[in-house]
Amino acid sequence: MTRVSLRRVVKRFGNVYAAKDVELDIAKGEFFALLGPSGCGKTTTLRIIAGFEYPDSGQVFFDEEDVTYTKPYERGTAMVFQNYALWPHMSVFDNVAYGLKVRKLPKEDIRRRVLEVLDLVGLRGLEDRYPLQLSGGQQQRVALARALVVEPKVLLLDEPLSNLDAKLRIRMREEIKKIQRTLNITTIYVTHDQEEAMSISDRVAVMNQGRILQVGTPQDIYFRPKNIFVATFIGKSTLLQGKVVKKDADRVVVDVGGEARIAGKLASDSGIKEGDDAVLVIKPEDFTVDPPEEPYNAIEGVVEFSMFLGSFTQLRMSVANQNLKVFIDPKKEVKPGSKFVIYVKIDDVLVFPRSEEVLEVA
Amino acid sequence: MDIRGSLRYLDNVLILMIVFSLALFSLFLILPLADMISLPLAFTLERLVSGTKTGYSLIELFSDPRLFRTYSTTEPVKISQLGGATLVNFIGWNFGVIPNTLIIASLVTLNTTVLGLVVAFIMARYDFRGKMLMRVLAYMPLLMTPFVNAFVIKKLFSFDGLFSYIINSVIGLPLKINVDGMFGVVLTQSMAFWPIVYLNVYSSMMLIDPSLEEQAENLGARGFKLFRSVTLPLSLPGLAAGAAVVFIFSMEDLGGPIAYGFYDVLSYSIYSNIKAAQNIGEVGAYVGALSIVLLALALAIFFGIKRYVSLRQYAMLSRGGRWIPRVRKPKLVGSLIIYLVVLPVMVFTAMPQIGVFITAFSVRWSKAYPEGFTLDHFASILKNPDVITGLSNSLKYAAIATTIITVLSLSSAYVAARSRLQTLNEVLDMISTSPLAIPGLAIASGYIVMFTSWPFKDTFLDPLSIYGPWLLVVLAYTVRRSPFATRVIYAGLQQVHVAYEEAAMNLGASRLRTLATVVIPLLGLNILSGALLAFVYSIAETSVSVTVGAIVAGQKPLTAVMLDFLTGGRLAGLQLAAAMAVLIVVTQLLIIFVTNVFLKQRYAFIGV
Ligand SMILES: Nc1ncnc2c1ncn2[C@@H]1O[C@H](COP(=O)(O)OP(=O)(O)OP(=O)(O)O)[C@@H](O)[C@H]1O
Ligand SMILES: [Mg+2]
Predict the structure, then answer these.
(1) How far is the CA of A210 from the centre of ligand 1 (A)?
(2) Residue boundaries of the structural domains of chain B
(3) Which atom of ligand 1 is nearest to the CA of A43?
């Protein structure tokens, strides 16, 4: 078990920052997810930890040891590649045994450990097959077995499930979680799927444009996003823009135009004052069609569009000329074009100061 | 990324590969050429600065009437009457060595470009009966029959050759033709080199996305307009590469000039002066000056076309189209052109190679055509000690060269494909492809200049020492033929995802172990076919073989022995040389068969 720390790591490709002052502390045995949109620098960060890329500046530590410029083959990490990178000219057994052979273990030990780990990933009996004779899910398990068998200091997974179908993805992520718990290996898991990150990890780091925006438990990230990017990236939130008309401790009332006023909770103490521009972030599933018991807002708007999606109905409502995404009970019938009132708890409305980022996200 | 950052990615194995590649190319390509250039340049400088003439300088080049003339010493066409028949003798001009070389190369490039382009277009866009035959015919001139094909062509086009015979005796016209001198060289080279243009243009055309042509057609472009506005520009890279290679090959060809006795060309002048110099023990500034001209012209072309295309394309001859190309049946005019013009021309260009085969099996060739069937020539070459020595020398040299090439090509291709040192990769890429454009005769002169003097004098690298030239020949083969293997391996490396290697290193394998257990097994077929190609092209090498390689009788490679047989005034010399050529061709065909059928690679048949 190893602690992994990144200190002000910077990596640039041309004008693009793939990592910009990245600070991370990943505890021994922790399951840590790196979450962010495509191209934000997740893979690069992972590759810096594996040693395939060296940072332009900053340091990488494994426990107390500075491994910033250590060669990949001297680091003791094990990576599961997005495309698995199983060697097509080696059987499943040889693929998995590779790391042990490199470590010059006795033959019998290699055999025993390979079979053990194949048992663990549920592939016992397939050791003589070649990668091309396996299904996607089986290949994924071989890749996992190949990484696990060497008992790495750190296990690195780069979107390991992105090539699998939805059902298999859910099953495999449960298995990975279970195996990680059993072996207790420090694990860094890269994904752009927020649900996957939430469900599997102890802590999540949300990245955008090479920067780490927030690190926290899945609950932290979900319920207490620190900025608009995190708030909107997680949970597909909807936005309303307006001006602060009243501020009372962390309670803020925002005028979103057309006389409509919505009260919410200040997300971060950013010194926002009355008269400032603000953005309201609300999760579509937090709206209700009946008034809740806690303090709430009642919002009136025109239903522009309604779509039945099985477990809920999605509405697009126009409120003061802004669009609002709302999920409601599918049994409720709503006619497009009609006026409609929905409710949301004041505590479920997050208020952020308006910044450049907003425009980008919206 | 800054250089310091990139250097971090190096490890001992990569450094070793870089050093090995650069050292080999520096010592056996760049330095000899630089050394050769330096002598005449020094004389030139001295002459310009102090006005004294210490040796042959570049200034002499322009005042030497052998090299430059404003008039031709021959009439291009001479017509005379003899016994009621009109004799037409196509001789061409003779303006001196340098203009002759340029005229020949230009005419040959023109001819081969026209024919190559037409055939490529037909093959890429039309489907017709006899296409397979045409495909085979197009490959015929690429069969490697060093020197012999030129002698066969000369015989076919003499006053009592097959063509005059057909015109005179079969058709019955009172006309006889003879092709000689410069025109003979042009004819021989055009016939031999046109498939190089064809193959390059063809593979470019097969890479054109058919939707581009369809789109142009949608917009109203038809027929020739479509060809000129879409197809031709898109196949320009192939055309440029093919034409450039033909131009360079033409300048350094020795077979044509020797067969026709047309000695006033750069290649022959360098060759004969190197031969003469062997007696004196040194080649002077004169050969150096001539080689500079040859080298400068070749490099000018090499860098000139770099704008359009890298020679890599030429060496790789991609695996054809990814698309399903647009083929259609020709209309009437098209059919007439194909069957009445193009096909006969192709049969015609295949005749030298066919002729070589027939000659090898014929008793004599004293009339218009070879007569009688015999296997005697094979029996007698296999009993001839010179041939046996030549054959075993060639096999030995080619085998050692191939071994070095395998390591060298793997190193330079791997570094070029994987290192993070952008500039180094480009430099290495350029150096490792440049032997395709550097005339072998320039390399030969460079070797003789550099390795016969300090600090190499009397070492095992000195061709005039007691060790003889064999090691230098091997190294010349290595340098000259490595691009073939490098390109095949480089192409393979681009197919092998770098993650395979990263996965190995991630699990603790060093670079060397990764190479041995992942890269080499995955590239196995590419490495093998690259090595086979390099082997067969080494055996057929001529420029260095007949110069440096001919210094010591017992160390001559096969091609040098063939030239001896052809020019030595020996009884049935042509037939015996043809029999040796057949041996080479059979080896070549065998290797092409193996690479295509067993290794499933399509890189064979690259050039002469
Ligand atoms: N070798 C490279 N050369 C140049 N640019 C690169 C290189 N590797 C990554 N980049 C750039 O760095 C940025 C981050 O890339 P990275 O692969 O880390 O993103 P990612 O978060 O893993 O994205 P994805 O989810 O699409 O895999 C991108 O803009 C990418 O184009
Ligand atoms: Mg990625």
Answers:
(1) 10
(2) 3-21+379-598, 77-263+312-371
(3) 22
